[in-house]
Amino acid sequence: MGQKLAEKVSEPQWLIEKRKAAKQAFEVELLPDRVSHLWKYTDPAIFNPQITTVESVSEIGMWRYSEPGVEVLHILDGIKKYEDLMREKFGSLIDNKNLKLSLLNESTWVSGYFVYIKKNKQSDDPVSLTMSMEKLKSFYPVRNFIYIEDGVDVKLVEQVCSQDEILSDVNIVTEIFLGNGAKLDFINLNMVGNKINYHLIQRANLSAQAQLENTFISLGGNVSKIDSETKLVGEHSVVMVSGIVLGNEKQRFDHHITVNHVASNTISGLDFRVALKDSANSAYTGNLKIAVNALGCDATQKNRNLLLSDNAKAESIPELEILTNDVKKCSHGVTMGHLDEEQIYYLMSRGFSDKEAEKVIIEGFIEPIILKIPEHTLISGQVKSRIEQKLNKG
Amino acid sequence: MSELLTIKDLHVEIDKKEILHGLNLSIKEGEIHVVMGRNGSGKSTFTNTLMGHPAYKILKGQINFKGVDINNLKSNERAKLGMFLGFQYPISIPGVTVVNFIRQAIKVLKGDNISPKDFRKRLYEKMDLLEIDYSFATRYINEGFSGGEKKRMEILQMSMLEPCFVILDEPDSGLDIDSLKLVAESINNFKKQFPKTSILLVTHYQRILDYIKPDKVHVFLDGNIADSGGPELALELEKRGYDWLEKAQVSVL
Fold first, then answer.
1. Are A254 and A42 in contact (CB under 8 A)?
2. Angstrom distance (rounded) from CA A174 to CA A94
3. CA B3 to chain CA centroid, nearest Å
4. How many CB pairs under 8 A join A and B?
5. Nearest CA-CA partner of A275 in A358, A201, A214
6. pLDDT tens string for chain B (253 positions)?
7. How many CA atoms lie within 13 A of A221 on its CB side?
8. Is B108 within 8 Å of A341 when comparing Cβ atoms?
9. Interface of A with B in 329-368 (CB under 8 A)
């Protein structure tokens, strides 16, 4: 399947070989077993689609766009234009953790974006990339690549969306490279309809003094799984991961966030907030690794869960793998609870009905993360109305 | 002036323990009543019962507000009738800014669609009176506020929401003398602006009554009003302590 498409768009030989190898490996590779901790909470078979109609995402926003220092291309055009860079880097961050599903992506991807931010960038405007799925019963394998040169800073807002009735599967793999002292403020918005199975593998690699603000806003999907790993390979690099999950009806979310402190004096912070209505379900795993030679690191994580119904269920699994004795700080905290009755009473004493009070509290709970979306934009309006719709339902 | 609030034979329990035992009280439009009493005498049970806290259960008796039996009304329905409770321990709502909180409250209470500009102007005027820094407008309500800041924030809400019946549960506790004066002056200003508004002020100390002149003072003892009188009763209490009243009760019995 992958090979046929590849030939059609005349891919470079090395890529054709890569796809061929991935396809062969995919066919013999088994789905990960449920015992491995990445798959304890979600059946991987959900993401191995039986659908064979492969589709490209529709591109909305700033695709195929360039201005001084900012280049946004279709991934294939990026591969062709920057072939040397891509031969070296493309796929280099993809490990074997999620092998079957990354092989599936590697052999079949047909769309995705390529973002290259260069030192001569002038504009401070955020770059917005929206991927829309518009066909019923299709499989959307998407491959993205972000490369940011030394010392540049940029904000990227990535949105994956679809109409509510679209029943399809999506498998996204995104690689992010940050040069020395580069800064990326990255927002991933999962706004797909509630019938889509959403699987995202995201890998980021930070050079010395690079900073990544990585925000996940997960609202959509039937089953949504995110497997994100940031490697702090350069000294004094920093990653801050924040996320919200707002689940309703029977939605399932499974977020697996790993930060790997490879170099010394690196800093990470995780703040993940989950609010669940109806019989929605969430598993959050926050995995902090500090390598044996990574000295003086600072790693904190918080996971807060708000259960809004008796049938909603949240699991929180903080994991610490610290192989060094020299740690500046390493902490984690988890809270799990229902709405606070005293907060509801306080709000009701000011005139809010119990439903309105509940809404105010949930909006407040997710507000610090929502604030990261650039205000007064089309996207912030869309996110707000989706949240509104989810909170008002039921 | 007509009756605003009439309470008859009020019995209230929490966690299956009766706290208020047959309380009677009536407050007329425009009056200021002060409730004093020891810790545990039932003052907060009383204020929370008035505001409709779901944990407090009315066993017997009646609360009539503006001619409506409010025994079974929810807190928000009472707020819509014009009741307001300034909390003894104001609750923080993380992620909700002061400005949004008050604006939304005005909207649900009055359906007002005051323009954001006019709203801010009014808010800043009231904040000036209470010497609250404007930066508080965009802070999350009560989150990380000091005790005194929380108390002033309650008064700010009162003056923005313009209720016709204000219950203030120890607005003076934890305040230094300057803050106490500010809070008291704001209450007086509000009263001057809305002379028909009635106030029920719960306090431990006579001090706030140097600024606010009550029409009536009631002393709580073991879940009921043990004595009522004019402002002189507060002075007497300050001088002689609650023991005096307790002994007086015993001697009457």
1. yes
2. 9
3. 18
4. 75
5. A358
6. 789 999 999 999 999 999 999 999 999 999 999 999 998 999 999 999 999 999 999 999 999 999 999 999 999 999 999 999 999 999 999 999 999 999 999 999 988 778 889 999 999 999 999 999 999 999 999 999 999 999 999 999 999 999 999 999 999 988 999 989 999 999 999 999 999 999 999 998 888 999 999 999 999 999 999 999 999 999 888 888 888 877 776 665 5
7. 28
8. no
9. 340-343, 345-354, 356-357, 360-361, 363-368
ipTM: 0.96
A349–B75 C-beta distance less than 8 A: yes
φ/ψ of A311, rounded to 5, equals: -90, -10
Pick from A47, A48, A49, A72: nearest CA to A59: A72
Inter-chain touch B108–A367, beta carbons under 8 Å: no
Residue A356 one-letter amino acid: E
CA distances from A257 to A42, A146, A184, A272, B8 (A): 15, 19, 18, 10, 60
DSSP state of A234: S
Number of domains present in the structure of chain B: 1
The boundaries of the domain holding residue B103 are 3-252
* φ, ψ (nearest 5 deg) of residue B248: -60, -40
Q: How far is A366 from chain B (nearest CA, A)?
A: 7
Contacts of residue A192, defined as CB under 8 A and 6 or more positions apart, other chains included, come to A133, A160, A161, A162, A166, A170, A198, A220, A221, A224
CB A190 within 8 A of CB A224: yes
- Residue in B with minimal Cα distance to A345: B53
What is the CATH classification number for the domain harbouring B222?
3.40.50.300
With cut-offs at 50, 70 and 90, classify the pLDDT of residue A8: low
CA atoms of A350 and A360, how far apart (whole Å): 12
The beta-carbon neighbor of A351 closest among B53, B55, B108 is: B108
Amino acid making up residue A262: V
Distance from CA of B174 to the nearest CA of A (A): 20
Interface test with chain A among B85, B96, B106, by most A beta carbons within 10 Å:
B96
Whether residues A353 and B108 touch (CB distance < 8 A) is answered with yes
